[in-house]
Amino acid sequence: MISSTLVDGTLAGERRAVARLISLIENDGEEARDALSALYPHTGRAHIIGVTGAPGTGKSTLVNRLALEYRARGVAVGIIAVDPTSPFSGGAILGDRIRMRDLSGDPGIFIRSMASRGRLGGLARTTGDVVRVLDAAGFETVIVETVGAGQAEVEIASTAYTTLVIDMPGLGDDIQAIKCGLMEIADILVVNKADRDGADNTVACLQMMLDLNANASHPAGYHSTDPPAASGSVTSGRHWRPPIIKTIATQGEGTAELLNAIEEHREFLHQTGLFENRERARARSEFMNVLRHDLVERLLTPAHTARIGATVDAIAARNTDPYTASETLVRDILGARRGET
Fold this sequence. Notes:
Helix content: 40-55%
Shape: globular
Number of helices: 12
Largest sheet: 7 strands, parallel
CATH superfamily of the largest domain: P-loop containing nucleotide triphosphate hydrolases
Number of strands: 9
CATH architecture of the largest domain: 3-Layer(aba) Sandwich
Order of helices and strands: HHHEHEHEHEEHEHEEEHHHH
Strand order of the largest sheet: 3-2-4-1-5-6-9
Strand content: 5-15%
Number of domains: 3
Structural class: alpha/beta
């Protein structure tokens, strides 16, 4: 079978097998699930790093520099770069691969660009599956770069063990950094393009945000009720205070310090036992995503799909409302399935 051949090749670290399996997964190939099931026992070894932030903050350039730094330390790196999809053509310009072209040819680096295909949250639907493939293929670190994100694209927090949120001077309203939900998922805050005017002011605003949210719970549930760390320190007991790292990615400045902060956070999670919390939250998120997809695919028969079109017309004509229409459709689907049994 094709899937067993791809599984064996992936476990052996064969790049062609990895690339073909990822394509099979992205295209919802029939054998993709069998391959993922076979690979699953061989996953859980890679450290997953999420990189997110507003468009133009230099995420791709920073990921490029991080990968080079990891390679200098002998670490194999897998990179997944998610690009936005056109709402009109459905296509995407996979520009991250262009920006990272100087990484090509290194057998210790694997880069995969993915189109978001209209999905909100900053990731593609199959991003988690691709992470598992790279994990099983032996890449010790997997970096996931989200699309240019706003305040709501925080899905990466449930996918990564360490989340980097990239900011930069000159984005406009500095108060935005304080109220932005995106900042609250950060394990490490990065002020990139720190050679620009206003970098110190951006750092000060982020410090103020950390002070205001010192007692807030992290979405992944790993903060404790211990007193927050004092300003300038990183940890206190089981509490992690996100450090703020200044970088100039185009020149490689601050990259080594950033990588050291990532490794420090990784050690912190394992030493405090909070890594298990992260892993359980990640497993739940993965399971719920698969469950939602399966329920929709299996419950919505062609007859229901046709009915949805008619229902949309009725909603647009104000003959019904979306809440009543949804409740009616769910009730009819479940009632029909109970009748079948």
